[in-house]
Amino acid sequence: MGITSATRHKPSGDDEATAQPQSQHLPQGTGRQRAATQGTDLQRERILQAAAQLFAAQGYANTTMAQIVRALGVTKPFVYYYFRDKQEIFETLSWRPAVDCFTALDFAAGDPRRASEKVVEGIERLIRATISHHPAAFFAYREPQVYRPEYLAAQKKLAHHFYDLLCPLLEEARRDGDLDFAETKITALAACSLPGFLYSWYRPGGRLSPDEVVAELTKLASRVIGLQVKKN
Questions:
Q1: Considering the entire predicted model, what is its pTM?
Q2: Is the Cα dihedral 73, 77, 82, 86 positive or negative?
Q3: Model pLDDT, residue 147
Q4: How does the average pLDDT of the chain come out, rounded?
Q5: How confident is the model at residue 24 (pLDDT cuts 50, 70, 90)?
Q6: Which are the contacts of 19, defined by CB distance < 8 A and separation ≥ 6?
Q7: In angstroms, rounded to a whole number, what is the distance separating the alpha carbons of residues 127 and 104?
Q8: What DSSP letter does each residue of 165-202 carry, written as one string?
Q9: Is the separation of the CB atoms in 35 and 220 below 8 Å?
Q10: What is the mean pLDDT of residues 138-152?
Q11: What is the pLDDT at residue 2?
């Protein structure tokens, strides 16, 4: 998801205690809406879905609020009630896949499975989240220059959270004899870069179904991390 830094860092006391990112909420300045209801959530979704198609088809710079309004058949005040501007719409669309991707390794604290099983499932979740959030999951790769510094900082924090879980799991699985690789950081980045390149070639409705694409990419990522096939 755009930022894939695997730089290891010492978490703060709060982070260390919870092993979770401090916040999964997008820093934003909203429109005039003050309280969400079921009805307003539906309207926000209408706006987001219409905007997502326009951003995907013609890019951020070539998409205007007026075009979003026309696609919805509403007035500008209607859209501005829910969103401050088109940048907030773009960031809101991008934030959902960022959270789903970078929390792919958030397993229960008492999960008894081997580290290698968690690594493979986490990478599979990452790939599946990227595909399921098409096209919004690809915005960060296509147009990283759009985002505010506050957004980028929040996304980077999520990325750190993901890699702070992945790298120790990789090393534990290597000690268990389940994985075979040399450099932890390079291996983590290489395996997780596979879904990052989806934006350049993935199209819904292709020869392979989304589930088949997930399965193929998970197999490739398993080779990157050196998953050892146990023989009976």
A1: 0.84
A2: positive
A3: 97
A4: 88
A5: low
A6: 109, 165
A7: 9
A8: HHHHHHHHHHHTTSB--S-HHHHHHHHHHHHHTHHHH-
A9: no
A10: 96
A11: 52
142 versus 11: which is more confidently predicted? 142
**Count of positions (residues) in the chain:** 232
Distances (CA, A) of 44 to 26, 51, 108, 173: 15, 11, 32, 43
- What six digits make up the tokens of 29? 């300045």
Tell me what pLDDT residue 230 has. 74
The answer to whether the CB of 102 falls within 8 A of the CB of 1 is yes
Beta bridge mates, 227:
179
What phi and psi, each to the nearest 5 degrees, are found at residue 179?
A: -125, 150
Side chain identity at residue 154, one-letter code: A
Distances (CA, A) of 61 to 45, 111, 136: 21, 45, 15
| Contact predicate 201/209, CB 8 Å | no
The label of the residue with tokens 């539906």 reads 42
User: In 59-109, where does DSSP find H-type helix?
Assistant: 65-72, 76-82, 86-102
Q: According to DSSP H, which parts of 19-142 are helical?
A: 38-58, 65-72, 76-82, 86-102, 115-132, 139-142
